[in-house]
Write a structure and sequence with these properties.
The chain is of the alpha+beta class and about 350 residues long. It has eleven helices and nine strands. A hairpin with a 5-residue loop joins strand 1 and strand 2.
Length: about 350
């Protein structure tokens, strides 16, 4: 089998086309591949076959990466487990762990048409009524995810009912200490405050990166798919709400680089408080300690950005034109916001 697609980073078109023909019902090769999401996270490709069928293929980034940070098996298990759960995910089609095909694990799912709100500019492309509906849907879908019974689900993660936040804090503190950036003392100081006042755990699925930029919506604001499950686990569900709100900016907050240029700076979205209250009504979960989870996620976000910045500094990331020095302000503002919230 041959493919008409030109070579594309991360894909061996002929081998992948052959694998898809053998493993995906109704697939007619050769395939055409288009990279639709790349950069510093997992790579997503649009795969089109000769009959007009369209799939999405996910694989880790090429180059120097930690395999554990880009676990395709983890994503596959969560997407598969959530079929027909009430949480909108794409239909899972097939998983490949044979690295001879294209150099890494990958999986394919149906391609879901929709709009991704990754920035304020994206949000301005839909009506204000759709922005409000997307706000409602973000709260509703998160509540639906957290209502899924994890018992019996074949998904990664601890079923422990305590300790999720403590394990997360330990993990990210050690990652920062391994590179010893200028912010190390502040990171450790905030970590100590966090572990000294952890709320009771609400055990369930934690997506790990639940935000509007990881959802596909209709022009009316209905969520049709949640994606990017690479960080998902069984842990403290409330951490997801903290992450969503830590990146949920409001008009006039552009000076706060922790939330700069997020889609919710456009008019028409709910406020953070409104999203939190709707989530509480839909989920029944206690949000009285929400400030803790937002602070934790601002701290965690800073730790992640410190890691990204370090990889650029040591040359482990390809030169993609990204000015990693802008992360200095993001890290500083996020850590300051976390520390102030914990006083």
């Amino acid at each position: 089998m041959t493919s008409d697609s030109p070579p594309i980073a991360g894909i061996e078109p002929e081998a992948v086309s052959a694998w898809l023909a053998d493993n995906v019902s109704g697939f007619t090769g050769p395939a055409e591949f288009t990279l639709i999401a790349g950069g510093r996270s997992n790579l997503t490709y649009l795969v089109s076959d000769q009959s007009g069928q369209r799939l999405a293929l996910r694989r880790p980034p090429t180059g120097s990466v930690l395999e554990s940070a880009h676990d395709m098996g983890r994503e596959w298990k969560f997407v598969s487990a959530l079929q027909d759960s009430g949480v909108p995910v794409a239909r899972a089609r097939a998983f490949c762990d044979d690295h001879s095909v294209t150099g890494a694990d990958f999986y394919v799912m149906d391609f879901v048409e929709g709009i991704v709100l990754a920035s304020t500019e994206d949000a301005l492309g839909i009506d204000e009524s759709a922005r409000y509906r997307a706000s409602e849907q973000a709260a509703d879908v998160l509540a639906a995810l957290h209502s899924v019974d994890v018992n019996g689900l074949d998904v990664p993660g601890s079923r422990k009912t305590t300790g999720y936040i403590e394990r997360q804090v330990d993990r990210w503190t050690k990652q920062v200490q391994s590179v010893m950036p200028p912010e190390t003392d502040q990171v450790v100081r905030i970590a100590q405050k966090l572990v000294g006042d952890v709320p009771p755990q609400v055990t369930g699925i934690a997506h790990g990166d639940f935000r509007l930029g990881n959802m596909s919506i209709t022009p009316a604001g209905e969520i049709v798919a949640v994606f990017d499950w690479e960080l998902a686990t069984v842990g403290d569900s409330m951490a997801d709400l903290g992450w969503l709100l830590s990146s949920w900016s409001e008009p006039g907050e552009a000076a706060n680089s922790a939330t700069t240029n997020t889609p919710t700076q456009a008019p028409g979205f709910m406020t953070r408080d409104q999203v939190a209250q709707r989530y509480a009504e839909k989920s029944g979960n206690d949000i009285s300690r929400l400030d803790f989870y937002v602070a934790f996620q601002r701290w965690r976000g800073a730790c992640i950005q410190i890691g990204v910045r370090h990889r650029y500094e040591v040359g482990a990331m390809a030169d993609d034109g990204y000015d990693h020095t802008v992360l200095n302000a993001t890290v500083a503002n996020s850590l300051e916001a976390a520390e102030q919230a914990l006083k």
